Amino acid sequence: MTRIMENNPDPQHKILLDGDVISHFIKGELFDLLPQLYPDRLIILDIVKSEIYHRKGWPQIIEKLIKKHNIQEAIFPEDIEYKKEFAYLVSIYGLGLGRGESACLVYCRFNQDTLASSNLKDIHRYCSLHKIDYLTTADILFEGFIKKIITKEDCDSFIVKVKEKGSKFPFGTMQDLIDAKNKL
């Protein structure tokens, strides 16, 4: 399912970064776009951080990005309601749902924050049910382009790099993304 954000999330909301979005922007060499678009709004949960830390060379990359961009690190709350919902999501809801995605969904639900994730198959139903705003990698890329922070060529280069490094992206070019957005 390809989805493009039709409206912008509340600018007061924090944005929780799921591992897939972090991975896309590192692989596509455009991570700096995130703090430019959402200054002082980015959060990485401890559970997500530990998930992406296992990749070779990534602990140093992640630590550098967190420090450079003043990304807030948050510990998943110990509150019983959070824990119950997290356990439910990990064990029952959508068998493909990972621990990081589950933690982000629960955190966003109880804090009215925005989720940055491209795993639409896994998150869409839960986000719709609980009225959680979310951004995909494509949404973020498009916003950077519209705000003239990055060029069409930057976007095309990003798409090529992300795909060459083994990640999926629903559009072949930035023009494909623009055309899809224009159809809304």
Description:
The chain is 55% helix and 8% strand. It is of the alpha/beta class and 184 residues long. β4 (114-116), α7 and β5 (134-135) form a beta-alpha-beta unit. The radius of gyration is 16 Å and the shape is globular.
Summed up:
With 184 residues, the protein is an alpha/beta fold.
SSE arrangement:
Layout: E1 15-17, H1 19-27, H2 33-37, E2 42-45, H3 46-53, H4 58-68, E3 72-74, H5 80-91, H6 99-111, E4 114-116, H7 120-130, E5 134-135, H8 137-146, H9 152-164, H10 174-182
Parallel strand pairs: 1-2, 1-4, 2-3, 4-5
Helix pairs in contact: 3-6, 5-6
Number of separate strands: 5
Biggest pleated sheet: 5 strands, parallel
Helix content: 40-55%
Kindly name the structural category.
alpha/beta
Globally, the shape reads: globular
Q: Which residues form runs of ≥5 with pLDDT under 50?
A: 1-7
- Please provide the ordered H/E string of secondary-structure elements: EHHEHHEHHEHEHHH
Q: In order across it, which strands form the biggest sheet?
A: 3-2-1-4-5
What radius of gyration results from the CA coordinates? 16 Å
> Could you tell me how far the N terminus lies from the C terminus, measured between alpha carbons in angstroms?
15 Å
Number of helices: 10
Mean pLDDT: 89
Question: How large a portion of the residues is in β-strands, by DSSP E?
Answer: 5-15%
